[in-house]
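Reopening this one. Same input as before:
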Amino acid sequence: MLKQYLLNSIIKEMKICRTLASKVPAEKIGFKLKDDTRSILELFHYLSFIGTGSIRYWYRTDGSDFKTFFGEMRSKSIEINTPEQFIAAMSNQVEQITALFDQISEDDLHTKIVDYPWGETAPLGQAIIETNIKWLTAYKLQLFSLIKHATEQKMGTPDAWRNTEITA
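Same output, byte for byte:
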C-alpha cells in the first residue's frame, strides 16, 4: 500500500510540472530572478531527471558512483531547450518511475537500506521521500514561482498542488 502511495505522489508531482511547463512562453525560458539562481530552463533540466534519479541510482547495475551516475543524467538533461521537450521528458519520467516501482516490493521500502550521496543511509521508503518526492516538490514550487514572475499567467494555489492536466 505504501508503495502505491509513494508512486502516486511522485507521478502527481511530475504531472504538475508538465502542466506548469505548458504555461511557459518560449521567449521566457531563460528567465531567472537574479544571476545566482536557476532559470526556468535550468529548472527544466534538473526536474527532468530528479524524479527518477535516486531510485535509478539505487537499482543501477553498472556499479557507477553517484557523481558519475548523476553527471550522466545531467549531461543528457541539457539537451532540453523548449517547454515541449521538457513536457516530453516528464512524460518519460512517469513511464520510468512506474517501471522502477515494478522492481520494488512493499518489504523493500522498509528493509532495503540505501546510501544517500552525502554518506548517510536510510530504508528505501524513507529515502524516496527524502530525495525524489522532496526534490520534485521543492523545485516544482521554484518553477511555479518563476513562471508567475516571468509571465502574465493567472495562476493560483491549484496550479502548484493539483492541476495535473495540460489545458493549453
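So the earlier flakiness isn't reproducible anymore. For the record, The radius of gyration is 16 Å.
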